[in-house]
## 1
Amino acid sequence: MAEVFVESLSIEQGLISDGDRDGWPFTVPCVAALARDGLDLRRPLTFLVGENGSGKSTLVEGIAEAFGLDARGGRAGRKYVNAREKTPLGKVMRLGLTREGARMQGGPRTRRRGYFLRAETTFGFAEVVSGLPGYWAEDLSAVSHGEGFAVIFRSMFREPGLYLMDEPEAALSFGSCLQLVALMHDLARGGGQVICATHSPILAATPDADIIEVGDFGLRRARWDELGIVDHWRRYLSEPAAYLRHLIDP
Ligand SMILES: Nc1ncnc2c1ncn2[C@@H]1O[C@H](COP(=O)(O)OP(=O)(O)O)[C@@H](O)[C@H]1O
Ligand SMILES: [Mg+2]
């Protein structure tokens, strides 16, 4: 396997208080599955694929915090990240680190490399940090969302590090999604590790990725062509009316 930083995820059961155990997020099926079985990350590129509400963001935020990235998003190595209270999952998430991962996480903050891209909050955040040291020079309030993402991708996703993304497809056209596929593939091949929550069948088709489906069943490893979203998109594109007749009165 190419070098990655995080090779497994688990939950430190002893740290969950009795009061928390029966509430969010431990009742979300994917979090319960992680608590029970843990999860191996077998490749430099992992997709967490599932419907809205399946728990993808909850998982990615927990991973971010466990690695020392801010759950609100942004670059690794920033100051004050550890001063904020973590999410309930971030507090108990344990990462199995490779030697390289342990070196990066245990070393000085400024040696940490990576980025947490949250599509939901990226724009307010990105406009504020444009021009600040360590970010990009372009003024993102003056470009389209798709172009803004391209700036972030080009300037932030360059060196080996841990890259977390939460539905990065949200603002992207078909063509921009394809560019992101190429970029994630390059990043993974160049020594980076990418963990990406998505419901885009385009992104999930990136070659050589490990795909984990997230849903009521918890977590399961899947092939791209077995994914629920791929089946739905295929059927919708070939006959939209078959779906829409259930939703729209003639
Ligand atoms: N801060 C929170 N407090 C309580 N419930 C939450 C919180 N954040 C998310 N949830 C719930 O947890 C579940 C998973 O949410 P989320 O991780 O955002 O899903 P996804 O990212 O897959 O759409 C949903 O049922 C959501 O309503
Ligand atoms: Mg989400």
Note: The first helix runs from residue 18 to 21.
## 2
Amino acid sequence: MEKRYKETGYYNPTYYQIECPKCKHEAKVLSSAEYRNELKTKVECPHCLYRGEYKDHILYKIYVKRNCPDCGKPIFREQKNLTKPSETLRVRCSYCKYETDYKPNVECCHPKANLKGQKGDPFFGYALWLQTEVKGHLFWAYNREHLEEIKAFVKADLRERQSTYLMTMTARLPQFIKEAKNREHILKAIEVLLKKDNK
Ligand SMILES: [Zn+2]
Ligand SMILES: [Zn+2]
């Protein structure tokens, strides 16, 4: 059987198969690669029709850290988990009691779902649909295409793995996937995941 690895370039997912945060069925996170704009990334579940947008999941932190303009002592105040960052933040100096509004620094962060040791998508952090354990290691793929790519790599023989393309791809895979002794276990896990995907 021909085991040549098709040269397709780096795998760059435009969607992630995930477990729906509401109904636990398979759902998708769609990243809008065409705009390179992560704020347009959304989650869609075909089972319970849950819809979510990344921009609504972002929480901001604002803070003022400087010296009091009146007495020169350091002042600090922060507010976390804001759905919208405010333009000003009022801070009172604890030394001289001087109080005024400042323009705060804004940091953007968003809460990741609690995954309990699982792998999540890079936007919402929802558990990936295609993941399982292989000999104590977490084995996962972003979506079916990605899983097929890993399968092709694992099936390629050692000589083919020396090609520039596979050598480059190898650098991005966890070590346990590259080890020959794990090959059968990984292929078995891939088949199980492909069946889960076909359901
Ligand atoms: Zn759902
Ligand atoms: Zn002061």
Note: Residues 14 and 31 are 5 Å apart (CA to CA).
